[in-house]
Design brief:
This protein is of the alpha+beta class. It has a domain of 142 residues. Helices cover 40% and strands 18% of the residues. Strands 1, 2, 3, 4, 5, 6, 7, 8, 9 and 10 form a ten-stranded mixed beta sheet that branches. Strand 2 and strand 3 form a beta hairpin. Helix 2 runs antiparallel to helix 7 and helix 7 packs parallel to helix 13. The longest helix has 24 residues. It is elongated.
């Protein structure tokens, strides 16, 4: 019988293993390692994300149950203690670098089309147990990590991610993000910082966000809007000249205030440094921010990022990086095989058939119909 690779093996075919080995060497990830190489650690964690493992013990047991098929992956069953030590000690920067390399494969045209690129910025919190208190303490009895993401809604993938304790402000993490010149950035009130806005404006970026309720605007001009539409007003003006008594506002360029009534009846004050586009276009850009919320829900519910198999900072950073890598591998596999189904359905089929030996296309084919149930009533009549 002709050998068929498992579904897991076919998804892993999109990992750049040559680059992976080079990153392992650059970060000395396998230095003084005798039993559990980084590749096996990576495969075990990926298996845990795809199989929705909720604990380290369950991950190791389930991974070992497929020992015969691990040979074709270049891996072996792992011990719980060895995997725990690897998650605590191996450099998380290596997995972050692998994530960055896969981003370039998912969205190779980003650099050439940056002028038309819309990037969404937001963060989501992940609850941790109290054993992570030494690094992720937030308040009494509450510990957590925060994932800061720059998301491209057109490519449907993240292009940047950073992990911090929950107590870190969103704007602090945003200032460490690389700025892509000429891109459009859409974000919410968590990134309300005039100095950072001035940096984006100086880089030729278009920004779309919301006004705080207590932020005044010195009106210079006002545009006509269509009566009866969702746009209530479109005005151009200047932000306050001073942030406090002793600090000047570096955001000195004119901005627009667009008031929009949304479906719930709430009125939003949208801010943008784009003085030429229509008010409807800017309002639609802010509405696209919902896409990153859907991405966070997808990652948490489908890849079970809410369950962590380690308590240390390094282990949590590695698992979140591996979860994002799993997301990108699913995108690459679905695109390469041109499978006509939703990303959510494809992810669920991969989870259900992870170690089955079938092609990715065969997952979408309906199984054989079950045989008809026997008519027991007819049998009773015959005996009668």
């Amino acid at each position: 019988m002709r050998h068929k690779n498992s579904v897991f093996h076919q998804v892993l075919a999109h990992v750049p293993w040559g680059l992976f080995d080079r990153l392992v060497g650059e970060h000395n990830a396998d230095k003084h390692v005798r039993r559990l190489p980084t590749k096996t650690q990576f495969l075990a964690l990926l298996y845990g994300q795809f199989s929705a493992a909720s604990s380290l013990r369950g991950l190791v047991s389930s991974f070992a149950s497929h020992a015969q098929r691990l040979y074709h992956l270049g891996a072996k069953p792992v011990k719980r203690s060895s995997l725990s030590d690897a998650n605590a000690q191996r450099p998380c920067a290596m997995f972050a670098a692998l994530f960055a390399a896969l981003v370039a494969r998912v969205h190779p045209k980003l650099a050439r089309q940056i002028g038309e690129c819309v990037l969404l910025i937001d963060s989501t919190s992940c609850r941790l147990n109290c054993r992570s208190e030494n690094w992720a303490h937030f308040s009494a009895g509450v510990c957590g990590a925060k994932m800061h993401v720059v998301y491209d809604p057109d490519a449907d993938c993240p292009i940047y991610a950073a992990i911090t304790p929950t107590r870190t402000n969103d704007i602090t993490a945003a200032k460490a993000m690389p700025i892509r010149h000429g891109a459009t950035y859409v974000f919410d009130l968590g990134y309300y910082d005039y100095a950072w806005w001035a940096e984006l404006d100086a880089a030729g970026c278009r920004l779309v966000t919301r006004f705080k309720t207590n932020t005044p605007l010195t009106i210079e001009s006002e545009r006509l809007v269509a009566p009866g539409g969702p746009v209530l007003s479109d005005r151009t003006g200047y932000l306050p000249a001073r942030q406090t008594k002793n600090r000047n506002n570096p955001m000195k360029c004119p901005v627009r205030e667009i008031k929009v009534r949304i479906e719930t009846g709430k009125v939003l004050r949208i801010l943008s440094n784009d003085l030429t586009s229509s008010a409807e276009e800017i309002a639609d850009l802010y509405k696209r921010r919902w896409a990153i919320e859907l991405f966070f829900r997808w990652v948490k519910q489908t890849l079970k990022i809410r369950h962590f198999v380690g308590i240390g900072e390094n282990a949590v950073r590695i698992q979140i990086a591996v979860a994002l890598i799993a997301f990108l591998l699913l995108r690459l596999a679905q695109r390469a095989h041109q499978l006509d189904c939703s990303p959510l359905l494809f992810a669920r089929l991969v989870q259900a058939n992870l170690m089955h030996c079938k092609t990715l296309a065969e997952m979408l084919q309906p199984g054989p119909e079950p045989p008809p149930e026997p008519d027991h009533r007819q049998a009773v009549l015959q005996w009668a």
